[in-house]
Design a protein that fits this description.
Elements lengths: L9 E2 L4 H6 L4 E2 L3 E6 L5 H14 L4 E5 L4 H9 L5 H6 L3 E5 L9 E4 L2 E4 H20 L3 E5 L1 H5 L5 H16 L4 E7 L11 H5 L2 E7 L5 E8 L9 E6 L2 E4 L7
Parallel strand pairs: 3-9, 3-10, 4-5, 4-8, 8-9
Antiparallel strand pairs: 1-2, 6-7, 10-11, 11-12, 12-13
The structure holds adenosine-5'-triphosphate (ATP) and magnesium ion.
Protein backbone atom coordinates (compact mmCIF):
# COMPACT_ATOMS: atom_id res chain seq x y z
CA UNK A 1 0.00 0.00 0.00
CA UNK A 2 2.61 2.55 1.03
CA UNK A 3 6.35 2.87 1.23
CA UNK A 4 7.43 0.82 4.21
CA UNK A 5 11.11 1.47 4.79
CA UNK A 6 13.23 -0.96 6.78
CA UNK A 7 10.56 -3.42 7.92
CA UNK A 8 13.14 -5.00 10.21
CA UNK A 9 14.39 -1.84 11.87
CA UNK A 10 13.23 -1.54 15.47
CA UNK A 11 12.70 1.67 17.42
CA UNK A 12 13.09 1.42 21.18
CA UNK A 13 9.80 2.06 22.99
CA UNK A 14 11.64 3.89 25.77
CA UNK A 15 10.53 1.16 28.21
CA UNK A 16 13.19 -1.55 28.64
CA UNK A 17 10.66 -4.21 29.75
CA UNK A 18 8.36 -3.49 26.84
CA UNK A 19 11.30 -3.69 24.42
CA UNK A 20 12.01 -7.17 25.79
CA UNK A 21 8.41 -8.19 25.07
CA UNK A 22 8.61 -6.62 21.61
CA UNK A 23 11.89 -8.36 20.70
CA UNK A 24 13.70 -5.01 20.55
CA UNK A 25 11.05 -2.36 20.00
CA UNK A 26 8.37 -1.22 17.57
CA UNK A 27 8.90 -1.97 13.87
CA UNK A 28 9.77 1.21 12.02
CA UNK A 29 7.01 2.68 9.87
CA UNK A 30 4.16 0.83 11.57
CA UNK A 31 0.97 2.02 13.26
CA UNK A 32 0.51 0.46 16.71
CA UNK A 33 -2.64 0.66 18.81
CA UNK A 34 -2.48 1.01 22.61
CA UNK A 35 -5.87 -0.22 23.73
CA UNK A 36 -6.65 0.17 27.41
CA UNK A 37 -9.00 0.75 30.28
CA UNK A 38 -9.25 4.32 31.63
CA UNK A 39 -6.30 5.48 33.71
CA UNK A 40 -4.06 2.53 32.89
CA UNK A 41 -1.18 4.63 31.53
CA UNK A 42 -1.87 4.94 27.80
CA UNK A 43 -0.78 8.58 27.69
CA UNK A 44 2.33 7.85 29.77
CA UNK A 45 3.42 5.05 27.38
CA UNK A 46 3.05 7.46 24.44
CA UNK A 47 5.08 10.09 26.27
CA UNK A 48 7.91 7.75 27.18
CA UNK A 49 8.02 6.62 23.54
CA UNK A 50 8.23 10.20 22.25
CA UNK A 51 10.65 11.29 24.97
CA UNK A 52 13.03 8.45 24.13
CA UNK A 53 13.08 9.51 20.47
CA UNK A 54 13.26 13.26 20.96
CA UNK A 55 16.10 12.94 23.49
CA UNK A 56 18.03 10.99 20.81
CA UNK A 57 17.37 13.72 18.24
CA UNK A 58 14.43 12.11 16.43
CA UNK A 59 11.62 14.56 15.71
CA UNK A 60 8.64 13.50 17.81
CA UNK A 61 5.05 14.71 17.58
CA UNK A 62 2.11 14.36 19.99
CA UNK A 63 -1.42 14.85 18.69
CA UNK A 64 -3.45 15.59 21.84
CA UNK A 65 -7.21 15.21 21.73
CA UNK A 66 -8.13 15.30 25.38
CA UNK A 67 -5.87 17.77 27.11
CA UNK A 68 -4.32 21.13 26.24
CA UNK A 69 -0.57 21.34 25.83
CA UNK A 70 0.02 23.11 29.17
CA UNK A 71 -1.57 20.28 31.14
CA UNK A 72 0.33 17.65 29.18
CA UNK A 73 3.66 19.42 29.78
CA UNK A 74 2.94 19.74 33.51
CA UNK A 75 1.84 16.12 34.00
CA UNK A 76 4.80 14.71 32.14
CA UNK A 77 7.27 16.98 33.93
CA UNK A 78 5.98 15.45 37.19
CA UNK A 79 7.09 12.08 35.79
CA UNK A 80 10.54 13.38 34.90
CA UNK A 81 9.96 14.18 31.22
CA UNK A 82 10.78 17.75 30.21
CA UNK A 83 8.97 18.17 26.89
CA UNK A 84 9.18 21.97 27.06
CA UNK A 85 12.95 21.65 26.78
CA UNK A 86 12.69 19.19 23.87
CA UNK A 87 10.28 21.59 22.19
CA UNK A 88 12.80 24.39 22.65
CA UNK A 89 15.43 22.18 21.01
CA UNK A 90 13.07 21.76 18.02
CA UNK A 91 12.70 18.03 18.59
CA UNK A 92 9.15 17.92 19.98
CA UNK A 93 5.87 19.28 18.67
CA UNK A 94 2.46 19.23 20.38
CA UNK A 95 -0.52 19.41 18.05
CA UNK A 96 -3.46 20.60 20.15
CA UNK A 97 -6.45 18.80 18.67
CA UNK A 98 -8.81 19.32 21.60
CA UNK A 99 -10.90 21.62 19.36
CA UNK A 100 -12.20 18.64 17.42
CA UNK A 101 -14.39 17.82 20.42
CA UNK A 102 -16.02 21.23 20.41
CA UNK A 103 -17.16 21.41 16.81
CA UNK A 104 -20.96 21.77 16.50
CA UNK A 105 -23.04 19.08 14.83
CA UNK A 106 -23.73 21.46 11.96
CA UNK A 107 -21.21 23.79 10.38
CA UNK A 108 -21.27 26.04 7.33
CA UNK A 109 -18.97 26.21 4.34
CA UNK A 110 -20.00 29.51 2.77
CA UNK A 111 -23.81 29.27 2.90
CA UNK A 112 -23.92 25.51 2.71
CA UNK A 113 -24.72 23.55 5.86
CA UNK A 114 -22.47 20.53 6.30
CA UNK A 115 -21.98 17.97 9.01
CA UNK A 116 -19.81 19.63 11.65
CA UNK A 117 -18.24 16.43 12.86
CA UNK A 118 -17.17 15.43 9.34
CA UNK A 119 -15.76 18.89 8.75
CA UNK A 120 -13.87 18.69 12.04
CA UNK A 121 -12.33 15.43 10.91
CA UNK A 122 -11.28 16.83 7.53
CA UNK A 123 -9.67 19.83 9.23
CA UNK A 124 -7.86 17.60 11.68
CA UNK A 125 -6.53 15.30 8.95
CA UNK A 126 -5.28 18.36 7.05
CA UNK A 127 -3.58 19.76 10.15
CA UNK A 128 -1.93 16.42 10.85
CA UNK A 129 -0.76 16.03 7.24
CA UNK A 130 0.65 19.53 6.95
CA UNK A 131 2.43 19.30 10.31
CA UNK A 132 3.92 15.96 9.30
CA UNK A 133 5.22 17.29 5.99
CA UNK A 134 6.82 20.34 7.66
CA UNK A 135 8.15 18.70 10.83
CA UNK A 136 8.98 15.26 9.34
CA UNK A 137 8.53 13.34 12.59
CA UNK A 138 10.18 9.96 13.14
CA UNK A 139 7.75 9.24 16.00
CA UNK A 140 4.09 10.17 16.32
CA UNK A 141 1.56 9.56 19.09
CA UNK A 142 -2.16 10.26 18.68
CA UNK A 143 -4.01 10.32 22.01
CA UNK A 144 -6.76 9.32 21.76
CA UNK A 145 -8.83 7.86 18.99
CA UNK A 146 -11.80 7.56 21.39
CA UNK A 147 -11.98 11.34 21.74
CA UNK A 148 -12.20 11.59 17.98
CA UNK A 149 -14.83 8.97 17.25
CA UNK A 150 -17.14 9.44 20.24
CA UNK A 151 -19.46 11.60 18.12
CA UNK A 152 -19.87 8.80 15.60
CA UNK A 153 -22.08 6.43 17.57
CA UNK A 154 -22.16 3.28 15.44
CA UNK A 155 -19.36 0.97 14.31
CA UNK A 156 -20.48 1.57 10.70
CA UNK A 157 -19.94 5.32 11.10
CA UNK A 158 -16.72 4.88 13.03
CA UNK A 159 -14.93 2.51 10.69
CA UNK A 160 -14.23 5.03 7.88
CA UNK A 161 -13.09 7.66 10.42
CA UNK A 162 -10.64 5.22 11.96
CA UNK A 163 -9.55 4.06 8.50
CA UNK A 164 -8.81 7.65 7.38
CA UNK A 165 -6.67 8.31 10.44
CA UNK A 166 -4.79 5.00 10.28
CA UNK A 167 -4.16 5.38 6.54
CA UNK A 168 -2.91 8.90 6.91
CA UNK A 169 -0.42 7.74 9.56
CA UNK A 170 0.57 4.69 7.49
CA UNK A 171 1.27 6.86 4.47
CA UNK A 172 4.18 8.55 6.29
CA UNK A 173 7.54 6.98 7.09
CA UNK A 174 6.99 7.73 10.80
CA UNK A 175 6.21 5.10 13.41
CA UNK A 176 2.94 5.87 15.18
CA UNK A 177 1.25 4.97 18.44
CA UNK A 178 -2.49 5.42 18.61
CA UNK A 179 -4.42 5.10 21.88
CA UNK A 180 -7.99 3.99 22.32
CA UNK A 181 -10.28 3.20 25.20
CA UNK A 182 -11.18 -0.45 25.62
CA UNK A 183 -14.96 -0.59 25.17
CA UNK A 184 -15.71 -4.11 26.31
CA UNK A 185 -13.90 -6.92 28.09
CA UNK A 186 -14.32 -10.67 28.44
CA UNK A 187 -13.86 -13.63 26.13
CA UNK A 188 -16.55 -12.61 23.66
CA UNK A 189 -15.77 -8.89 23.63
CA UNK A 190 -16.42 -6.98 20.42
CA UNK A 191 -13.30 -6.10 18.45
CA UNK A 192 -12.97 -2.38 17.71
CA UNK A 193 -12.29 -1.22 14.10
CA UNK A 194 -8.88 0.16 15.05
CA UNK A 195 -7.81 -3.31 16.18
CA UNK A 196 -8.24 -4.68 12.67
CA UNK A 197 -6.59 -1.69 11.03
CA UNK A 198 -3.50 -1.24 13.23
CA UNK A 199 -0.48 -3.41 12.49
CA UNK A 200 0.10 -4.06 16.17
CA UNK A 201 -2.10 -3.99 19.29
CA UNK A 202 -1.13 -3.70 22.97
CA UNK A 203 -3.77 -4.23 25.64
CA UNK A 204 -3.54 -2.50 29.06
CA UNK A 205 -5.79 -3.57 31.91
CA UNK A 206 -6.26 -3.34 35.66
CA UNK A 207 -7.02 -6.71 37.23
CA UNK A 208 -8.45 -7.51 40.63
CA UNK A 209 -6.47 -6.07 43.55
CA UNK A 210 -5.19 -3.32 41.29
CA UNK A 211 -2.59 -5.41 39.46
CA UNK A 212 -1.94 -3.84 36.07
CA UNK A 213 -1.02 -5.88 33.03
CA UNK A 214 0.13 -5.25 29.50
CA UNK A 215 -0.22 -7.80 26.71
CA UNK A 216 0.76 -7.82 23.04
CA UNK A 217 -2.35 -9.01 21.16
CA UNK A 218 -0.77 -8.73 17.74
CA UNK A 219 2.39 -7.42 16.09
CA UNK A 220 2.70 -8.07 12.36
CA UNK A 221 6.15 -9.12 11.23
CA UNK A 222 7.58 -9.69 14.73
CA UNK A 223 8.19 -12.55 17.08
CA UNK A 224 6.87 -11.19 20.38
CA UNK A 225 6.02 -12.30 23.92
CA UNK A 226 2.24 -12.74 23.97
CA UNK A 227 1.91 -13.33 27.73
CA UNK A 228 0.29 -10.60 29.82
CA UNK A 229 3.04 -9.02 31.97
CA UNK A 230 2.64 -6.85 35.06
CA UNK A 231 3.68 -3.20 35.13
CA UNK A 232 3.90 -0.44 37.69
CA UNK A 233 3.61 3.35 37.44
CA UNK A 234 5.80 5.44 39.76
CA UNK A 235 7.07 9.00 39.86
CA UNK A 236 9.57 7.94 37.20
CA UNK A 237 6.94 6.66 34.77
CA UNK A 238 5.82 3.24 33.68
CA UNK A 239 7.93 0.11 34.12
CA UNK A 240 7.05 -3.23 32.54
CA UNK A 241 8.17 -6.31 34.49
CA UNK A 242 8.84 -8.45 31.44
CA UNK A 243 10.09 -11.54 33.25
CA UNK A 244 7.27 -11.74 35.79
CA UNK A 245 4.10 -13.78 35.50
CA UNK A 246 0.62 -12.50 36.32
CA UNK A 247 -1.17 -14.46 39.04
N1 LIG B 1 3.58 9.88 40.26
C1 LIG B 1 2.80 8.81 40.05
N2 LIG B 1 2.94 7.72 40.84
C2 LIG B 1 2.17 6.64 40.65
N3 LIG B 1 1.25 6.54 39.70
C3 LIG B 1 1.05 7.58 38.90
C4 LIG B 1 1.82 8.77 39.03
N4 LIG B 1 1.42 9.62 38.07
C5 LIG B 1 0.43 9.00 37.41
N5 LIG B 1 0.20 7.78 37.90
C6 LIG B 1 -0.77 6.79 37.42
O1 LIG B 1 -0.91 6.96 36.02
C7 LIG B 1 -2.26 6.84 35.67
C8 LIG B 1 -2.60 7.80 34.56
O2 LIG B 1 -1.79 7.53 33.46
P1 LIG B 1 -2.28 8.00 32.04
O3 LIG B 1 -2.81 9.37 32.11
O4 LIG B 1 -1.20 7.72 31.08
O5 LIG B 1 -3.48 6.97 31.83
P2 LIG B 1 -4.47 6.92 30.58
O6 LIG B 1 -4.69 5.49 30.29
O7 LIG B 1 -3.96 7.79 29.51
O8 LIG B 1 -5.78 7.55 31.23
P3 LIG B 1 -7.08 8.15 30.49
O9 LIG B 1 -7.93 6.97 30.17
O10 LIG B 1 -7.68 9.02 31.53
O11 LIG B 1 -6.59 8.89 29.29
C9 LIG B 1 -3.07 7.18 36.87
O12 LIG B 1 -4.18 6.32 36.93
C10 LIG B 1 -2.14 6.94 38.02
O13 LIG B 1 -2.46 5.70 38.59
MG1 LIG C 1 -4.80 9.43 28.56
Amino acid sequence: MSNKPDEETKLSSGLPGLDTMLDGGFNKGRVILILGEPGTGKTIICSQWLHEGAAKGENSMFIGMNEPKSRFLKEMLALGMDFAKLEGDGKFKYVDATDVRKIPEQAKVGRIAVGGRELGLVNLLETIQSTISKFEPVRIALDSMSDLVFRFPTVEERRPVVLDIVESLQSTSATSLLTSELLSTGEERLLQPEEYLAEGVLLMRTLRKGVRTIQILKMRGSKVDTHPRPYVITGKGLEVLATEEVY
